[in-house]
Fold Glyoxalase-like domain-containing protein.
Amino acid sequence: MINGAHVVIYSRDAEADRAFFRDVLGYPNVDAGGGWLIFKLPPAEVAVHPADSASHELFLMCDDVAATVAELTAKGVEFTQPVSDEGWGLRTVLRLPGGGELGLYEPRHAKAYEL
């Protein structure tokens, strides 16, 4: 039986992105060997959206996007898009130290992880 999910983020600077998840976001982790950190994530959910080609995105969720943006900005995190109202939630995008981007949003929809 499937008992979890493992998310992989590909990075041009894996060490910097690992430090970001460890030090800025404060996610607990295990060392799988040689400094290869694997992070415990908050509760998660998955959605399937229609598209012309297959792709994947990772969004972090929060209860108050304005407060979270302020907290992360104070820690030096760069946001590449202003907060926008998408109807289903308030959304922004942050840049990882390795150059990648992650979505961040405050959902207005029911949260599947609360089931």
User: Anything to note?
Assistant: The radius of gyration is 15 Å.
